[in-house]
Each structure stands twice: as C-alpha cells, then as structure tokens.
Amino acid sequence: MVGVGTIHVMEHGEKYHFTLPSTYGRSILTVPWSEMGGKVQVTCPQTDYTSTLVFHTKPMYGGKMHRVTGDIKDNMTGKCLYKIDGEWNGKLKFTDESTKSVEVLDTEILSVVPKMVKPVCDQRENESRRLWRDVTLALRNNDIDKATAAKHANEERQRQEGKARAAEDAVWVPSYFKSEEDTWIYKKSMAEPQ
To answer: Which of 82, 97, 21 is nearest to 51 (CA)?
Structure first.
C-alpha cells in the first residue's frame, strides 16, 4: 500500500513510522477472502530501532494463512534484538536473540479499543461515515444492487464537483489533511495540543 502511518507513544516520547502491507482479494468466484502480503517497515527515530515484517501470502497448496515473520534491530549496533514469527491475527512469538527466551503475544485475547467517532448526524456531508452510510447500510442488508447504486451516486457527485472546480480553476482544500512534501498529514494530530 502507499503511505506511511505514525503512532505517537506519548508516555515514552516515541514516534513509530510504519508502512502498510498490500491486501489481496482471493477466491472471488467461490468463497471470497482477503489476505495481506508484502514487506512492512517500522522505524522509531528516538530509539533508532527498526523492524522489518513480512506478511506471507498463502501458497496455492498447503501453508498457513496470515503468517508473519520479521525482526527488530538496533541500528546503532546493527544487532538483531528479536525474531518474530506467527500469525498477525493469532499468536506471535518474539524470540530474544541474546537470551533465546520467548514471549508470546496472543492477539485474540487483546482488548479492542472502540473508535471515537462523532455521530453521523453531527458529521459534515463529506465525512466518510455520513457520505458512505447508504452504501454501508445496503451492504449490511446484503442488497448489492442498492449498495452499487449508492456508491455510483457518491462517485458521480464527486466527479461533478471536480469538474465544477476545474471549470472555475478552484483549488481543492482538504478539511482534515495538509500536504507536506510527498505525504498528507492530519491537521489535528492527537500528539499536539488542541
């Protein structure tokens, strides 16, 4: 996938920058499912540690789904600190390379933190949940035709708005993101005082 995410761990004063794996649709003619695949890089400038994670796609015959391998390295010494192996949606095993001790993280028992989202009625017309609510509702009701029509209506409206801006030489100014170099940054970062 394109882009870099950043997580601020404010209690430790650390920022973690990470790329994202690609998502692949499989078995679209039978029972569809998706999987992630590719290399992910995680870096922390404050600790100078990096991690490379490989999301393995399932082989045609045999093999496991959702498999991940990787390592955590200290860039100052070039030393590998941990090896990582497991499933991203199951158990991940972290092996300390100096002591060979193993810690297991079971992702299935981690608590889920609910999203903090404004109610749809309080959102602007172009905010995702409000903009795509008819599509979402139709998909939940398994009404593919209605979902497709709602999606088409949204996309057509966006095309018309784009044509109108182009005709007036108007520049699109995003509400929530700003462009910095070759990336987009959320304007109201939770790491910055509001």
So the answer is: 82
Q: Phi/psi at 157 (nearest 5 deg)?
A: -60, -45
Tens digits of residue pLDDT in 87-119: 999 999 999 999 999 999 999 999 988 888 889
DSSP letter assigned to residue 192: S
CA distance 68 to 38: 10
The gap between the terminal CA atoms of the chain, to the nearest Å, is 30
* Burial of 53 (C-beta count, 10 Å sphere; 0-12/13-18/19+): buried
Closest residue by Cα to residue 154 from 174, 176, 131, 172: 131
Torsion over CA of 149, 154, 158 and 159, rounded to 10 degrees? 0
> Is the separation of the CB atoms in 53 and 19 below 8 Å?
no
